[in-house]
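Collaborator request, handled under Task 6.
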Amino acid sequence: MIERQLQGLIERRLLQTPAVVLLGPRQVGKTTLAKTIAARQPPALMLDLERESDRAALQQPELFFAAHRDDFLVLDEVQLARQLFTALRPEIDADRRAGRFLLLGSASAELLRQSGESLAGRVSYLELSPLLAAELPVAELAALQLLWLRGGFPLSYLARDEEASYAWRQDFIRTFLQRDLPGLGVRVPAETLRRFWQMLAHLQGQLFNASQLGMSLGGASHSTATRYLDLLVDTMMVRRLPPHFTNIGKRLVKSPKVYLRDSGVLHALLGLASVQDLQGHPVAGASWEGFVVEQVAAALPPDAHLSFYRTAAGTEIDLVIEMGARKVGVEIKFSAAPKPTKGFWQALQDLQLDRAYVVAPVPRRYPLAEGVEVIPVAELATLLAG
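Structure tokens returned to the collaborator:
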């Protein structure tokens, strides 16, 4: 079994707060991780709210919670029983011991809003990403390439071969559109959302233009395109990366950039089933960029802020990370011998960064200039935590 980096943080939060909500898309490994944590905290009771029998046990949640106050309760797929948040509030207030509940859910704006209103000050939120380079033995570039191609959903990454991995991702996309989103109350036709998702895949790492995408959808309004983007962002399929604003007297780009968060899903939507398909494809560089963005985002503390910097004149840096008073820049290059552009060096001057890294598919780190290093993906987590 692959050891997830988030496990230690979840266990620390359970020592501090009555409930932890672990968010993540379907099939990302939430249930497996929860079972591992529950095995270390007996007595534990795990309910899967997709099972009718488990939902029946919670018909009277106040009575059920009171009867199991001595148990560590894990409630899986809580987005299917949102009324539980109302019952959890008085139960937590009646017994505010730390580590009583671990709630697992597929992210949605409504789920976050309802739980936030009911459990403010009583719960800690954490997000489980797909598998990370730092969690896997990817010191060899060939192993890193496998993770990039297949993405980080465990059943895709661990599939017996490329054909099986690709088939799993195609099935995942179909199930997500036809079952998971309707289960969250989404009433947009599955084929419409698939087309929109594929459009975003072709625009990986580019600025989001709602009007242009709406027209490509057959004349839909910009607000409709924005609503579709919100759906995919809320369900953690897409990352909307905001621009970095700073008072430097220059015209700054104000539109967000969009990335499909899992590189394997991106490749499946574009019909790229193998390394041969991916090599030389126009999306390869943007795919690598999105892959690295997710590695960076997962390595950051919860209070860090992630953005990109670009001026109208073309000065830019792919990521600006703000962690308290510390400001770090990350440039992403799909090259074994990366050479940042003039715009990157100008961005360093504009932003007065404490440190900058150029992330590339290289076997080892090396200095590029004073305060700037080229680093492999697997070292990101350690460097950003330091």
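The cover message to the collaborator said: "The radius of gyration is 22 Å. The chain has two domains: 6-127, 133-385. Please let us know whether this matches your experimental observations."
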